């Protein structure tokens, strides 16, 4: 499997690879090498450059975000199923324009929904959830793995494509009746988000929606959410 995946952006199914932006002059990835091109960090491709990409004409800010995501084959090594194309969103953080647009799109989604709490999952959900909460003017609650929170906690167990684990939050972090949005970087099997829903329900909060940067629909994670609305920026196919 190479680094190419199917990417659905704004309803358009298209091919995407990490080398495409660099080849078009975007300067974010060194073509074929999977490395950052020297001296080009944080310089997004211009509209004219993006128009040269093979999946034109459906060029949008979401495609800019999608192209900022690095794909790492066969990670983590401990997985029983080889061939997974790991979607590494940390490279969005190296592109200020992509990071900014990611947060702005989430803010636009939830600006009018009267959100009381944004709850972000360890680890990458914390990165995207905290600035969203600041922009919305609401509380931020970290959902963390066991042993990371110093106070009394409540827990929920979940199963991912990798392992069985727990997620925790502080007692009293979410109050009865508060309206909560869950944020994570990616939904795969849906186990982590399902555990987050259970945590908020234990606190008698109301989960409005879950938000993820990426969805891997082949793993059918939506089916574990019990009908909870799921907002996704980028859907990637053929990652297995």
Q: Can you give a write-up of this model?
A:
There is one protein chain. 41% of the residues are buried. By secondary structure, the protein is α/β, with parallel strands linked by helices. The N terminus is likely disordered. The protein has a domain of 126 residues: Rossmann fold, CATH 3.40.50. Helix 3 crosses helix 4. One of its GO terms (molecular function) is adenine phosphoribosyltransferase activity.
Mean pLDDT: 78
CATH topology value of the domain at 113-238: Rossmann fold
The CATH architecture of the domain at 113-238 = 3-Layer(aba) Sandwich
- Which structural class should the secondary elements be placed in? alpha/beta
Number of helices: 6
Distance N terminus to C terminus?
A: 9 Å
Along the chain, the helix and strand elements come as: EEHEEHHEEHEHEEEEHEE
CATH class of the domain at 113-238: Alpha Beta
How would you describe the shape? globular
Rounded to an integer in angstroms, the radius of gyration calculated over CA atoms is: 18 Å
Map the helices and strands:
Blueprint: E1 5-9, E2 12-16, H1 18-23, E3 29-30, E4 35-36, H2 47-50, H3 61-67, E5 70-73, E6 85-88, H4 96-110, E7 117-121, H5 124-136, E8 139-143, E9 153-159, E10 164-170, E11 179-187, H6 191-202, E12 206-215, E13 230-237
Parallel strand pairs: 7-8, 7-11, 11-12, 12-13
Antiparallel strand pairs: 1-2, 1-13, 3-4, 5-6, 9-10
Helix pairs in contact: 3-4, 4-5
């Amino acid at each position: 499997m190479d680094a190419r995946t199917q990417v659905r952006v704004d309803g358009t199914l298209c091919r995407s690879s990490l080398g495409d932006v660099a080849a078009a002059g975007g300067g974010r990835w060194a073509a074929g090498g999977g490395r950052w091109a020297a001296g080009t960090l944080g310089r997004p491709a211009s509209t004219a450059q993006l128009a040269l990409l093979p999946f034109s004409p459906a060029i949008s800010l979401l495609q800019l975000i999608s192209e900022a995501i690095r794909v790492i084959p066969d990670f983590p090594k401990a997985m029983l199923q080889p061939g997974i194309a790991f979607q590494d969103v940390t490279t969005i953080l190296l592109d200020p324009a992509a990071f900014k647009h990611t947060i702005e799109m989430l803010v636009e989604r939830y600006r009018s929904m009267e959100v009381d709490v944004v709850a972000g999952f360890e680890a990458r959900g914390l990165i995207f959830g905290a600035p969203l909460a600041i922009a919305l003017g609401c509380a931020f609650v970290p959902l963390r793995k066991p042993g990371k929170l110093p106070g009394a906690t409540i827990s929920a167990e979940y199963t991912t494509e990798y392992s069985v684990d727990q997620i925790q939050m502080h007692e009293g972090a979410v109050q009865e009746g508060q309206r909560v949005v869950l944020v994570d970087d990616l939904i795969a099997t849906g186990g982590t988000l399902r555990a987050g829903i259970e945590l908020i329900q234990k606190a008698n909060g109301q989960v409005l929606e879950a938000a993820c940067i990426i969805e891997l629909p082949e793993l059918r994670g939506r089916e574990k959410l019990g009908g909870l609305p799921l907002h996704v920026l980028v859907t990637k196919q053929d990652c297995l």
